[in-house]
Design goal:
Layout lengths: L8 E4 L5 H12 L6 E6 L4 H10 L6 E5 L5 H15 L6 E4 L14 H13 L6 H8 L11 E5 L19 H21 L5 E6 L16 H13 L8 E4 L8
Parallel strand pairs: 1-2, 1-4, 2-3, 4-5, 5-6, 6-7
Helix pairs in contact: 1-7, 4-6
Bound molecules: NADPH dihydro-nicotinamide-adenine-dinucleotide phosphate (NDP).
NADPH dihydro-nicotinamide-adenine-dinucleotide phosphate binds next to helix 1.
Length: 253
């Protein structure tokens, strides 16, 4: 990988498996790795993982923090813990990756499925860590990963424009609407935080072989994540309020 990641700290939510886990692994293995890689996960086994990581040199600079993004209480305590880890430097890059996809078509969708999916996929990114990004942004100039960035892992399935014709076949009311809402959150944050030096963008990882993407997906987690890290390495002012895929192609809203 020829891209360079110039970033003091990265936090990835939902890093217990799939794309989140691969993001953490790949960041930790880079020679230009951020000084602090914070991996959050809701599984209490994360505490055991803390012990395990001591035996694993490659993951030595990965700090694990417990965070269930379906609980505001858990989010708030994770924010406090991360605050004490990053201190006065703040957080340079927040990757909102944790998500659920409850399979719901018109006949099976329930208010509960909608609300839970919204909390996890669209609401939680708004109520965590943003003050820590502002601390980081206030300490440098320019725009990009070196200063501060919010990366919302979205999906082409959240594109209103693309939900027509062939791609409309994938019916998932809760998931698709939650990702459309996340995309709007990206734009709202870009308007408010862009002028403060924080780049906010939505990033689609492609269709990836994970528990969520399934075995028929087009990409391995390695392919998706190395593509996304290349996109992040060139992050600039032009990306603020943008929606791109793992190849850096701009997607329709
Ligand atoms: P997976 O289902 O494989 O992993 C989801 C991750 O989110 C897990 O680590 C899971 O943790 C975590 N998570 C779910 N709910 C919570 C919660 N309440 N609190 C904390 N963590 C939680 O999904 P992927 O890795 O495939 O997806 C990652 C991101 O990429 C998501 O935002 C997804 O929408 C997006 N995406 C994926 C695509 C694909 O093809 N795979 C396509 C387009 C977008 P736990 O192990 O505890 O359940």
């Amino acid at each position: 990988c020829t891209s360079v990641i110039l970033c003091k700290s990265v936090l990835v939510t939902g890093s217990s498996r799939g794309i989140g886990l691969q993001l953490v692994k790949e960041l930790a293995e880079r020679s230009d790795r951020p000084a602090r890689i914070i991996a959050t996960a809701r599984d209490p086994d994360v505490k055991d993982a803390k012990k395990k990581k001591k035996q694993n040199k490659k993951n030595q600079n990965v700090i694990m923090v417990l965070e269930d993004v379906n609980s505001q209480e858990s989010i708030s305590s994770a924010v406090q813990e991360v605050q004490s880890i990053v201190g006065s430097e703040g957080l340079s890059c927040l990757i909102n990756n944790a998500a659920i996809n409850i399979s719901t078509d018109l006949n099976t969708v329930t208010p509960d499925a909608m609300m839970t999916t919204f909390q996890v996929n669209s609401v939680s990114p708004l109520f965590a860590f943003l003050p820590l990004l502002q601390t980081s942004a206030s300490q440098s100039t320019g725009m990009g990963l070196h200063r501060a960035a919010v990366i919302n892992i979205s999906s082409i399935l959240g594109s209103i424009q693309a939900n027509w014709g062939e791609t409309a076949a994938f019916k998932a009311y809760a998931y698709r609407t939650s990702k459309a809402a996340l995309n709007m959150l990206t734009r709202c944050l870009a308007v408010d935080l862009g002028p403060k030096g924080i780049v906010c963008m939505s990033l689609h990882p492609g269709w990836v072989k994970t528990d969520m993407g399934g075995p028929l997906a087009e990409l391995t987690v390695e392919e998706s994540v190395s593509g996304m890290l290349s996109v992040l390495s060139t992050l600039s002012e032009d990306d603020n309020g943008g929606f791109k895929d793992y190849r850096g192609h701009t997607l329709p809203w």
